[in-house]
Structure formats: structure tokens, C-alpha cells
Amino acid sequence: MISVLTILMGVTIIVSLNGFNNNNLKERLLFVPFRIKHNNEHLRIISHVLIHADLTHLAFNMFSLYFLGSFLENSFIQYYGFYEGESFFLILYFLGGIFATFIPYYRHHENRNYKSLGASGAVSAIVFAAILWNPTMQLGILFIPIPIPAYIFGPIYLFIEYLADKKGNSVIAHDAHIGGAIFGVIFILLINFDKGKEFFYLIFK
């Protein structure tokens, strides 16, 4: 049986590759807060996760989604069973992508020119859900040459995103990454609060 992760990645890759050469498709799927508010184009709240700016953007998101998504999907299946585990993974991904739009929407719903795209917010939800699920796993970060525990990686990542967002002048939607990360944590606390208690104990023991 094909996994939810495989389907998500397959659809995203196919749609993104088509979008590279089809501006009309890309324009229909972009996250555009102004058009969502004033034209009621609500599909854009989630459709943006299917398209990417270029091959590097797509590869980076799919690489992150594959490695941490595989871990989290398998963990959900082992803990909850196949159907419930896969359902949780699918819900986490898409609600994470939606939740990631909240801050950008609030900031830019009157800005005709603001547009964004990509699965980064949804992937961020997966990453931080995985961190809370297994905070002692080792993760790498670009400017640190050795893997570090996930419970250290997470705060460092969020701090970097916060500084980048505060600085501004970037084509990257750092606020969407932060929103996705917050939802990933909330989701795990909703389905398994003990994971939050274990994380808290690990940090403050």
C-alpha cells in the first residue's frame, strides 16, 4: 500500500515541475492574501503547498519532508496503527500548511503585491512534530558540522527564523515557517500530551 508521504511527495513534485513551465497554473495556486480576502479565493490557503519557485526550493522541501516525514509517519503507524497513523500524518501536513498562512495573511491581506508559495510551512509542522515526538534524535543544521539533539536544534532553528523575520527584506516567508512549527508542536500535544511532558522533563530535569 502506498504511503501518504509518498503520495504527498509525488503530487507535489509533479505539480511543481509543471508549474515551472506553466505560469497560469502557478498563478492559480499561489498564496495571495489580498485575493483570498477580496475575491474569496479560499483554495489558495492550501494550494500553495503544491508549487515551488524552482528546483532548489522543491528539492530542499522534499528532502526535509522525506527524512523527518518518514520517521514521523512510521512512528504514528507504530503507535496508532496504519489507518489512524496515516490519517494523523495527513491532517498534520495540511493543517500545518494552513496554519502557516495565518501570520502572513494577517500582515498582508491588504497588500495586492504579496505572493508566496511552497510547502515550507507544512514541512516545518512535520519537522517540529518530529522533534517533540523524539527530542533526542540527532539533526543537522547548515552552519554546525556535527549533528545535534533535536531538542537543541528546534530552539536554534526558531531563533534564526525569528531574527530573519524581524530583519525583513527577504523573499523567504520566515513567518510561515514559524507558524508551521508552532502548529506541529500543538498537534502532537493534542494527540499525545505525554510527549510534551517528556520533552519538558528532558529540558528541565
Characteristic key phrases:
205 residues, mainly alpha, Rhomboid-like fold
Number of helices: 11
The arrangement of helices and strands along the chain is HHHHHHHHEEHHH
Total number of strands: 2
pLDDT < 50 runs, ≥5 residues: none
Largest sheet: 2 strands, antiparallel
The CATH superfamily name is: Rhomboid-like
Q: Name the overall outline.
A: globular
The total number of structural domains is 1
Rounded to an integer in angstroms, the radius of gyration calculated over CA atoms is 17 Å
Helix fraction, binned, reads over 70%
**What percent of residues are in strands?**
under 5%
Query: Which whole number gives the mean pLDDT?
Result: 92
N/C terminus separation:
42 Å
Overall CATH class: Mainly Alpha
Structural class: mainly alpha
In CATH, the topology is named: Rhomboid-like fold
Q: What is the CATH architecture assignment? A: Up-down Bundle
* Sequence of strands across the biggest β-sheet: 1-2
Commentary on this structure:
The protein has 205 residues and is mainly alpha-helical. It has a single domain, classed as Rhomboid-like fold (Up-down Bundle), CATH 1.20.1540. It is 72% helix and 5% strand. The chain has 11 helices and 2 strands; from the N terminus they run H-H-H-H-H-H-H-H-E-E-H-H-H. A two-stranded antiparallel ribbon has the order 1-2. A hairpin with a 2-residue loop joins strand 1 (138-141) and strand 2. The model has no long low-confidence stretch (mean pLDDT 92).
Topology (elements, then pairings):
Elements: H1 4-20, H2 23-29, H3 33-39, H4 44-47, H5 55-80, H6 82-99, H7 102-108, H8 120-133, E1 138-141, E2 144-149, H9 150-167, H10 174-191, H11 193-204
Antiparallel strand pairs: 1-2
